[in-house]
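Example 9 (inverse folding). The structure is encoded as follows.
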């Protein structure tokens, strides 16, 4: 479409009484279209009736050696290298790759510059019931086993 004049150029040629076909590329003109289809088109017929030289008939052409990639097709677009990438995090607890809809923690409280979940709602260790670790990392695990 870049070889056809725009509406502004057509208006300017009409205003100056010029022929707008001088602005068109040759392939957009009517005579070029007529010349393209003036040559008779002959059907090839069935491939068994074709006359093929022995040299060409002996060549074996295989299908391309390409396979679809395994797995489900990628959804979404490819991110440009100039774009920033962000990691989704929960509004409630701040954990990455989690959203607030599925978060087991209650909403955060705002106390000045400190934001966090109240201690009574945070996850506690199932052994000593203190906050900040779980049963795998509990410092009292050895004393409870004895």
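The amino acid assigned to each position is listed next.
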């Amino acid at each position: 479409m870049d070889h056809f004049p725009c509406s502004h150029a057509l208006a300017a040629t009409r205003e100056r009484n010029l022929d707008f076909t001088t602005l068109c590329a040759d392939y957009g003109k009517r005579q070029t279209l007529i010349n393209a289809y003036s040559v008779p088109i002959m059907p090839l017929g069935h491939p068994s009736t074709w006359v093929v030289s022995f040299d060409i008939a002996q060549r074996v052409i295989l299908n391309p050696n390409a396979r679809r990639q395994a797995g489900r097709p990628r959804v979404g677009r490819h991110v440009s290298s100039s774009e920033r990438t962000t990691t989704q995090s929960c509004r409630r607890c701040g954990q990455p790759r989690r959203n607030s809809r599925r978060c087991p923690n209650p909403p955060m409280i705002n106390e000045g510059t400190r934001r966090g979940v109240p201690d009574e709602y945070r996850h506690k260790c199932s052994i000593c019931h203190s906050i900040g670790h779980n049963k795998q990392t509990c410092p009292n695990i050895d004393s409870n086993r004895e």
